[in-house]
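Before relying on records like the one below, remember that each one covers exactly one chain. Contacts with other chains, cofactors or solvent are not represented anywhere in the record.
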Amino acid sequence: MIPVIVIVLGIVMLGAAFAAIYFKSLLASIISAGVISLFASVLYLILGSPDVAMTEATIGSGLTTVVFLFALYRVRKGNLDD
């Protein structure tokens, strides 16, 4: 059962990666990259590495996505001199 879950997660991650490349919207690409990282953390947890899964979830999925969203907000707002 676990190999099937790993394969499905891998396919979903590849789909999200291609979606992030082909989306025209930067917001959709950032969200798609966050989804890839979230599924990677689930994959690490299934494969028996909870410490790496926690790190990936907090840094990769959470912090990186928030930083990208903040940067996109600042660029669209035009406040780059602060």
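Residues 2-77 form one domain.
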